[in-house]
Design a protein that fits this description.
Blueprint lengths: L13 H7 L3 H9 L3 E6 L2 E6 L2 H7 L5 E2 L6 H8 L9 H14 L2 H23 L3 E3 H17 L8 H13 L6 H26 L9 H7 L10 H31 L1 H8 L3 H14 L5 E6 L3 E3 L2 E3 L4 E5 H4 L44 H18 E4 L21 E7 L2
Parallel strand pairs: 2-8
Antiparallel strand pairs: 1-2, 3-5, 4-10, 5-8, 6-7, 9-10
Helix pairs in contact: 4-9, 6-7, 6-15, 7-8, 7-11, 8-9, 8-11, 9-10, 9-11, 10-11, 11-12, 11-13, 11-15, 13-15
The chain binds protoporphyrin IX containing FE.
Amino acid sequence: IKEQVPKDKGIDHTIAMSQEAYLFIKNRVDKYQSDIFETHLLGEKAICIVGEEAARIFYDSELFKRNGAAPKRVQKTLFGIGGVQSMDGEPHRHRKNLFMSLTDSHHQNQLSKILMDKWQSSISKWEGNKEIVLFDEAKYILCWAACNWAGVPLLESEVKERAEDFSAMVDALGAVGPRYWKGKIARSRAEEWIGKVIEDVRSGKLKVEESSALYAMAFHRELDGSQLDTKIAAVELINILRPIVAISTFITFSALALYEYPECKEKLLSGNSKDFEMFVQEVRRYYPFGPFLGARVKKDFAWNKYEFKKDMLVILDIYGTNHDSRIWEKPFEFIPERFKERNESLFDFIPQGGGDPAKGHRCPGEKITIEIMKASIDFLINKIEFEVPNQDLSYSLERIPTLPKSGFVMNNIRRKI
Ligand code: HEM
């Protein structure tokens, strides 16, 4: 039954991947007319897959493991070493429970409220400014709100620097050279800062609420009853703070969508919460953020007439699955209504991963992301008025991560009465 799967010609395609970025897998899937193909990345064979069925096997923890899947350079910037992303089996599930409890509906509401208050109180500051860059303001506000919510002390004067560090870790994802180094330095600085805060909580020098993320990380117990290494506790707390700051990317894309599709904005102005939900989902589907995911084969198996061998590297295309014409009608059009009546599937809409977050690696912060986006969009359309001056709002699919080039400049900001 073994059939030939299309193979990329050449010795290594790491450079092509960094150049074609979000479209690397899609370009080949289109060229070979196959939802699976073989290539070589970072010196080894890699199998790239796309689509709902591909996501379904990728999230089968009997078939795939994460340990040893992420390149070292990603661990040194985006993930951190020793965190939940590279764990498997029972230890992963135990660590993941901690993240699930810190992202439940109570925490979502708390964080959204803190955030909304901070958005509102920023208006008067902006009213005097000539213009602001939404992406930057969103980073600072989210960083302040995330730390405040998590119980991490943060002076107003530190916000900008810390926010830039969280952001630099994300920005390093597809980078080589200076952008990579910036992310690496940012991670060292953040781990040192958060590690110190955790030590202060453990020693009693810093008092913090027991329901806070900081407390939970500081006193979390491993399956064998031991406390987390300070460094790992810091990595995991950063695994909550950093992605909250990263929602600034989705907020910027939301503003772009409101601007590019005024009819959608009109609808939201008189809309209900379902309209907000549909809009947010379409932003998360349509615009590029997470590009792809890697895992290693745990044991030999066959799928789609291809034999997967133990330890092979497999890459699942997030961007391609969210634009797969087998799943989405007119995938390259922005149509929030497509979310009106959808059959729920855990594997066809995967901006933050697929499957059940409590059991596998899917992002635990998806609901938080949705709530924060809703609150921020509500703020942008109902609490302020502003103008959008001439600027370069284009974004490249050849850079990971990407963003409208101008960061979305707004001017003449007024409080809406
Ligand atoms: C994992 C995307 C926000 C915490 C992931 C994964 C993706 C993702 C693609 C990998 C899933 C996998 O490995 O199978 C995003 C995007 C976000 C976002 C695009 C929007 C900015 C958040 C938030 C939090 C969070 C707000 C926390 C409050 C995590 C954690 C993991 C994760 C801890 C690792 C889970 C695991 O390995 O089990 N996210 N995320 N993320 N995310 Fe998010």
